[in-house]
């Protein structure tokens, strides 16, 4: 025991030392603290040349396995961690007394020891949990290569022990090919480590969800999963001129990519992401669920639930990234509908997509990569899975869920197509819709709508989806809602200036209406009518008009008919196409049409009241009064023509042609994304060509239409004044009536000319379709030639 202590090979029994149990050769390692107590070994240079060769070969066999020798020592830096030094490569020093020729050969072999220690340390670190499956597979492949390396060491030791002719030169001859392999593996390790250091410098750290619990990940994205595969592919491509090196990297790529391909197949065949280490190219945001589609105005479920990590896509999958994403998304939707997904070997692709083979000539992937990746079978798998998933979901939407029939149903209700039922509904609900919007009973309106839709004489009676139509009340006016959307979309650069402009316009309207009211009040006093009657009418109309133009920041300005809207119940997966965002677009178009229909009805009622009135119908003995009546008739008719032409343009030149175009495209559609794109483009085009996406056009249009409403509300006062003048109960004076009708004409002509000019301008810069509306509104250039009062306003004010 004392002798063992003096020699320093054992302080305690190795059976009690865990290190010795795990690695018995550690008994050769002399602790630095004990080295001073050990008798200094005889310098190797004092031995004969043959003995020097023998001892240095013996030392090399141990050093090549990462163990320190007697005459070859590790040079460790004190201020640097041992693990970092091992990764970067430990430098060995040879006894200086060794023969120079032997020392030269020894130093050629020593890099093997450096590389072995570095690779072994890399495997130890990157086999930890957080580095992911791909890193684990790469470490397993490297471990297999190290095992072959150790077998080589064992064979060399056997030769050394059994053959007297074994020399250092033979050792170098046998290990030289292995040195090339170890050099390339060590170079790969250094590149991965460099990527790790860059990620740490850039503070690239993510929070992972592992088993439902958040944990800090110590492995940056760039050195796991697709990041490692990218490094391997790049090195294999760059070293393609060296067959041995290329073969090595192809082997490492084929082994390390297996877990990644497994994740890929799980995604494209089952729509599931089995990625606990966050290393796959597709990431899932679990907080975005299909239930959010009911209130999601931004289509987040389809666009953001599954996204691509662009920075870690393996190069050989870049050309397939969109198909990979869509294949998984499609099959995931089918799975969430409760439909069982067949196993890959049971999916009859030929029955679904035909028997066309994949054209490899169009695949932009290096042939060497295809060979490394199971001969490129992943290309066939991606193509077939994409086609199967696409056709399955497309059949589910178009056939099982009857998407086109659903869209026809929505068109019938929201675009007022064959809307006899809706006219009946408005007649039944007229008294309720005159109330303020916050006092309207939605239950009563819904029951009236259901009653109308179930009427056998109604066109909607045969609609199988009529139960999904619901009544709703908007909290803001149509114009205000549209301007709010435009401001949020960034179309209106300065929302504050836009609101100030609207307030200024409202002030001008109040000012002009106030003048009308003052004049009518004075005349009312002269005629013996109660004072303030005309002013009260003008004030109430002004409040209604102001509330509509400003957008009714307060709810009390909205009546039931102004706030009325429709809603539609859509279930998953139809909600992918008919999303809340799409339904909002349908609602805006519906409210736009309903508003125009309402104004048209007001003008019709005005014509009806005048036709029933004896004083309006019969000629007058006063030529000036008869001329005034003709001006009222003409203005009412011009307003009616304006509203009718606008309605005809929207329904017959925008909505119907766009719908026919959509139907034609859907009948020929081949992918689900085409369905989504065509439907979105259809709604965007309809909104744009109906002037609902341009803030300036919208403001001009709203003022032009609401002056028509003001005129209809003021016609009762015109009738009272006409009766007074015709009956002779008051002295005959028509000056104030002429001034009033002149103000209406001036305001209407000015704004319709402004609208025509704006349409001409935007038809050249935005939508040529506006030219059709210009022709309809001013086919004979009447408004272009009309000269009203000059105002300081212009288009830019809007």
TrEMBL record:
Keywords per UniProt: Cytoplasm, Cytoskeleton, Microtubule
GO molecular function: gamma-tubulin binding; microtubule minus-end binding
UniProt key word Cytoplasm: yes
Xref: InterPro entries: GCP (IPR007259), GCP_C (IPR040457), GCP_C_sf (IPR042241), GCP_N (IPR041470)
GO cellular component, one term: spindle pole
GO BP terms in the entry: cytoplasmic microtubule organization; meiotic cell cycle; microtubule nucleation; mitotic cell cycle; spindle assembly
Family of the protein in this entry: Belongs to the TUBGCP family.
Subcellular location: Cytoplasm, Cytoskeleton, Microtubule organizing center
A Pfam short name: GCP_C_terminal
Domain Gamma tubulin complex component protein N-terminal: 57-399
Limits of the Gamma tubulin complex component C-terminal domain: 403-783
Major localisation: cytoplasm
Source domain of life: Eukaryota
Name this polypeptide is given: Spindle pole body component
